[in-house]
TrEMBL record:
Presence of keyword DNA-binding: yes
InterPro entries in the record: HTH_HxlR, WH-like_DNA-bd_sf, WH_DNA-bd_sf
Record-given protein name: Winged helix-turn-helix transcriptional regulator
Pfam families xrefs: HxlR
Sequence ranges assigned to domain HTH hxlR-type in this UniProt record: 22-119
Keywords, in A-Z order: DNA-binding, Transcription, Transcription regulation
Length: 131
């Protein structure tokens, strides 16, 4: 049995993640958030706030600020004040954040590979769903 299958079986048999007090829940909520995933993907190298914002079409300044703060709080992103005038700030992945690069790549690859199938299912559902 593959490792991920063993983990999924253990989780489902013991309802570990399904408990409201499970410490993994807020972490999963953070890293599964679309903006968190995109920010971490953009941070292949250190970047300033506005550079991150320009690369993430549709993100607001407020949401990006909140996302970066949560990622920093969780140890995924490091914020470094640059000795420039005016003062600049640069964000980069920590080693913990880097460790998510491979799992995110698998998820992204799966998403791209299945996007057309999912969109077709959505259209089928929308056509037959009562309104």
């Amino acid at each position: 049995m593959a490792t991920s299958e063993a983990v999924y079986r253990a989780i489902s048999e013991h309802d570990v993640v399904f408990r409201a007090d499970c410490p993994s829940r807020p972490i999963l909520d953070q890293i599964a958030d679309k903006w968190s995933m995109m920010v971490m993907a953009v941070l292949v190298e250190p970047r300033r706030f506005n550079e991150i914002k320009r690369r993430l079409d549709g993100v607001t300044q407020r949401v990006l600020t909140q996302t970066l703060r949560r990622l920093e709080r969780n140890g995924m992103v490091e914020r470094r004040v640059l000795p420039t005038s005016p003062v600049g700030v640069e964000y980069s992945l920590t080693s913990l954040g880097e460790s998510l690069r491979e799992p995110f790549a698998h998820l992204y690859d799966w998403t791209v590979a299945n996007a057309a199938k999912i969109q077709a299912r959505q259209r089928d559902y929308d056509q037959r769903a009562p309104r």
